[in-house]
Amino acid sequence: MLSGRDPRLIRFLQEELAVSSASIEMAMRREDSGQGPLPMVLWRYGLISLDQLDRVFAWLDTVDATN
Asked: pTM of this prediction?
C-alpha cells in the first residue's frame, strides 16, 4: 500500500476528490502521530465521505496491481 507521502495518492486526493491541501496536511500530521493511514484519517475527521474512502481504496488497488 502507498504511504500518505506518495505524490500519486496526494494528486488523486486533490484532483479526483477535491480534498484541500490544508486537509491533507492536517491528516498527514495525524498519520505521523500514529492515528492510521492517510485515507482513514481523512475519513475519521470527516474530510472525505465513506463513498470517497471507497474510491480511494479502489484506486489504491489499481495502483498496487500495476506495481
From this structure: 0.85
